[in-house]
# Entry
Amino acid sequence: MTHSSPSLTDTRPARRFKDKLTRQTVRLGGVMVLVTLLLLFFYLLTVVVPLFHQASVSLSERFTLATPGVPQYIGADTRNQLVYGLDDRGVLTVAKRPQRSETPTASAVLRAQTVLQQPLSSMDKPAISRVEASTPFLAVEKTPGRVAAWQLRFRTQYQADASVVPQLSTMPAFGRELIVDASAQPLNQLTVAVPDSLHGQTIPPVLAAVTQDNRLVVFRGTQKSMVPLSQAVDHIALSGDGQRLFVHQQNRLAIWRVNGNDLALRETVNLDNVVASPVTKMSMLAGGRSLLLQHQDGTVTQWFDVVKNGEPSLTEVRAFSPGEGVARLAPERHRKSLATVDETGRLSLVHATSEKQRHFDAQFTALPDALAFTPRANGLIAVVDNQWQWLTVDNPHPEVSIHSLWQKVWYEGYSSPQYVWQSTSADDSFEAKLSVVPVIFGTLKVALVSLIFAVPMAIGAAIYTAYFMSSGLRRWVKPTVETIEALPTVIIGFLAGLWLAPWVESHIASVFLLLLLIPIILLGLSGVWRMIPRYVRRRLPDNAQIVVIIPALLMVGVVAAYLGPWVEQVWLGGDARQFMTHELGIGYDQRNALVVGIAMGFAVVPTIFSIAEDAIFSVPPHLKNGALALGATHWQTLIRVVLLTASPGIFSAVMMGLGRAVGETMIVLMATGNTPIMDWNLLEGLRTLSANIAVEMPESEVGSSHYRVLFLTAFILFVFTFVFNTLAELIRQRLRDKYSNL
# Structure
């Protein structure tokens, strides 16, 4: 029986208290880590979930507006204070929108106060057209065969209550009026386009009309072009830049090219071979690149130019069926969304690119005479039986859907559906392309390439250091390699982007020779070493292999540097990059996956080496000694005993390196070129999840679709890390249970 000393007996309660306090502190720390992870998880979800909320529409107010005729084009100012309507008699009416607060019941019909009413035509039924821009442009047949164009501005007065005042002025680009038909016959069709300025230079607006005798007349500013047509025209429409004119004649759709004084027929599409239902109306989608065709059966089709055989060709890209016999359609001003109302009065909101559709119960008692979005797309205006209805629209993220995030999407200007990430552009007609697939692909690609470089070197170095190297040399090598891990990754990325990438580009042949010769030389040296008799090897000093390997590797570098230019000159036409690009068709970016793989491998090697070396070195000596005593060689002992016993630690080391590569930011940010493309070519650039967040988060608008999708990519990165770590722990535990009895 043992007896404790008096000092130990006196301190036992205090020691127990300290042990208990330590256990509770560690337990609390673990719980707080889990709570922090859960809070981070749910915070990311709170930012991401609104992306998938369904759109909602609610009636705000009803009011009447005194207009002589039936409104054809309606709209509002950006502050939603004024509404305007251009009726079928050519009368423009602007009124102050009545607010719901003015009446105790939302169902009551209010009366709007007219602030401007001006007839723009002396005809009973003139041809009219409108361009929905920051300030609406109106083209009206003033007298038979003569057209005038106006611009409706909304000026804010801040002196009193920040009220909005309408101002109507003629467009100087067309002069006072345009003589379309000198014979003074009424026009059948009229359309107008007002392109945005390009590089500070004003682009003249374009006006197109069809006369009663089927002549197509186009004005580009005051320059006039005219072409006779063989048959009657049903509908015409101009692209947003005014360079394409679409003319619908029965079952044919003709595309005319408008360029200065030239008016040339580009192509003709036979609609009978493409669509099954007759066309009832044409309109342009936001941005003016896509043409929307409304069909008699309620289908809406989207068309835009696709390059085929080097020439643009108008192609049907999508078809929607939002209702039965769609009769009214209103596109948004800035987004690729549109509202439709079918014959039953059912309202639908559709986003063309994401193919997101939201249908509502009957919102109208009859088919609206006119339908339009407000400039900021937060309201929808409809005129039904001379009664104006204002509907509040909540649809903040129509461009985001499961389809647009995870599947191929056919965007305007692309030859086929693709995965694309491009969030911003200088073009006003641009639509954000937010597919997360390219950045996920880039993350996995850079992780795989970096591990291909890092794992063989790190594991091989760990095996040699822990198993073959003398203890004295190990005390120097292991801390030295671990010190490299403390090197800031921004320094590695800086050197990789500004020094390594240009050097690899100018010595591409030498780099590939080096990557080819190093494994061959190492395997050759290994074979030569095994050919040396055992009694000779026993007489050699410890770590004699290093004395041979290091000079051999240096010699390989010298040989590769010497042979690279010769190989390039003899076999690659003197320029390896040009040969790969032009002869082999392999793209090359200076900052590519090969460069980032080398740099990332350099950063990941210390992590994998340190953990794997500790695992191998920690294998109990009696296992190694027992295997050797039974007659196994050092290699047999290593492969069949040491590595199997250390496999949980080695696997953990590889997974730690994978986690480091997946989450690395600065190296991939500075050495990859940040091009979100999907190509397994090691000489092309890429973009990762972490780098994408670092680059674009400072520039994103808080609460926007771009902002929330970036949080979605952060959530995906979080899930990736969690899944990888969970799988790694499960596999590590199974390996430990399997080989723990060795």
